[in-house]
Design goal:
69% of the residues lie in helices and 11% in strands. It is mainly α. The chain has a single domain (5-129), classed as Arc Repressor Mutant, subunit A (Orthogonal Bundle). A three-stranded antiparallel β-sheet has the order 1-3-2. The chain is globular, with a radius of gyration of 21 Å. It starts with a helix and ends with a helix.
């Protein structure tokens, strides 16, 4: 007679392993987002200049991200020379810091997008057709 997994190990061990698995899935999801956010930001900026709150709002419509995360990405992109900033008066309130994609940033965005498309297509084939 073969015991089920739950019967073969103690219940606390089973729960602990389940929690670890769930934690790893959540962390991998966070790592996926961390990896794709620069491409998302660069792609939005390739269409038009934008300010942090607007970019955060647009990305948050599709992905569960915090505003601070997008600002960290923008800071890294600026440090790397992929974006520049300028101030623009707002209709209401203080001037907003807008982000503009540099020529280097445009090249980098295209490169990342090509890499993402290849990765997405190959993993799609693997996952859907095995």
């Amino acid at each position: 007679m073969q015991l089920s997994y739950v019967a073969a190990v103690s219940f606390p061990t089973y729960i602990a392993k389940h929690c670890i698995l769930h934690y790893n899935i959540v962390m991998n999801n966070a790592q996926f987002k961390k990896g794709i956010l620069p491409l998302c930001v660069l792609t939005l900026l390739s269409r038009e200049d934008g300010y942090g709150y607007d970019l955060t709002t647009r990305i948050a419509q599709e992905l569960d991200v915090k505003a601070g995360t997008i600002y960290l990405v923008l800071g890294r992109l600026k440090e790397s020379g992929y974006v520049t900033t300028y101030l623009k008066e707002a209709e209401k309130g203080p001037a907003r810091k807008y982000y503009h994609l540099t020529k280097t940033g445009r090249t980098y965005q295209k490169q990342l997008l090509e890499e993402w498309n290849r990765f997405s297509e190959s993993t799609g084939r693997l996952l859907n057709h095995g």
